[in-house]
Amino acid sequence: MTVHPSLQPSIDAWTQSIEAISELASSLVDGEWNRATECPGWSVRDVVSHVIGGECEALGDPRPIHTLPRDLYHVTDETTRYLEVQVDVRRHHTGPEMTSELEYTIIRRSRQLRNERRKPEDIVSHPLHGKMPLQDFLDWRVFDVWTHEQDLRRALRRPGNLDTAAAHVARDVLLGRLPKVIAEDAGAPKKSAVVFDVGGPVEFLRTVRVDEHGNGTVDSSPSLGPIVTFTTDWETFVRLTSGRVRAKKVADKLRIEGDTDLAERIVNGFAPAH
């Protein structure tokens, strides 16, 4: 029995992206480990620690027993507190310790994925994300790894891999969040539509529609009269919708047409996605 064919593309995308992180990490000099990233409060070392921790939890390893310092300004709620444990426990690790743990974790996780015999629809449980189908969990790991690969690339000024298979998985995860952000959080009017016109390495046009009951859905059909249209490039879309930057910081790369008040509520609703 082999890996279910529906899962293999996600496993391949994860493999390419996490190996790219390993390659970046192995080439770092001492000062680069401490370089700041766009993730609040996290350095390059911290992002790599988070990736290691995420894969260790996917492996079923016990969580570290660790008490966080009280002065971490970016730890603001239970989610950030949960994520910070895997990061802070490695804050004093050396570069060689980080790279060796990352490589060993990739070996273990790759072996686990090669031996995956469950079906895409089988339910898995995660302490932070709750219960979800295995396919969705694997796609979440792809999204997490790829977005952090891009965090590292921007911090280190080593751009690349914006159009990989993992990038397309990340696109779908980010698009899947838009209906809630627009219909529920931003309170877009019933029977309205918001359009995202994105160019660059990953190019697409998507419409988020709010029905007469206030429920949001996303599709690839154009809207004749959208209430708001966002036009931007792929990398800016990722940075914005994953909470890496505020709209004001990328105003030169973001064109907004339509209801400015609603647009502002939408862009302010994009929370950091660690």
UniProtKB/TrEMBL annotation:
* InterPro entries associated with the record: DinB/YfiT-like (IPR034660), Maleyloyr_isom (IPR017517), MDMPI_metal-binding (IPR024344), SCP2_sterol-bd_dom_sf (IPR036527)
* Residue ranges annotated for the Mycothiol-dependent maleylpyruvate isomerase metal-binding domain, each copy included: 15-153
User: Would you indicate the residue range of the signal peptide?
Assistant: none
What protein name applies here? Mycothiol-dependent maleylpyruvate isomerase metal-binding domain-containing protein
Q: Name one GO molecular function term.
A: metal ion binding
